[in-house]
Amino acid sequence: MYPEDVQAVFPASDSAGVARNTELSIEFSEKIDAESFKSKLHVYPPNEFSKIKSDGNRLLVSFREEFPETTVCVVLKSGFRDEHNVENRKNYSFYFST
Predict the structure, then answer these.
(1) Omega before residue 68 within 30° of 0, cis
(2) Which end of the chain has fewer CB atoms at under 10 Å, N or C?
(3) Is the pLDDT score of 1 beyond 70?
(4) Secondary structure (DSSP) of 18-46
(5) CA–CA gap between residue 98 and residue 77 (Å, rounded)
């Protein structure tokens, strides 16, 4: 089995003028174990998650606070697992501006 890949993200990478209260949506090539995902997702500037919801191959992430007006970096570190317990070995990052 092959580890899953990121297929799409919202907000799209390099987007500008994104709402400060936006949720993240990350779509994968297959279903992800949301528990293994939690410790691998980091945003800069830091913002605490209020909820991570699994919706098929998509994970939806909401935050406790709005982002400041700045460039936001989202980093997904390797080590999260898919539903077949296959571990991802690649880091993935994207940026957007509020």
Answers:
(1) no
(2) N
(3) no
(4) --TTPPEEEEESS-B-HHHHHTTEEEES-
(5) 23
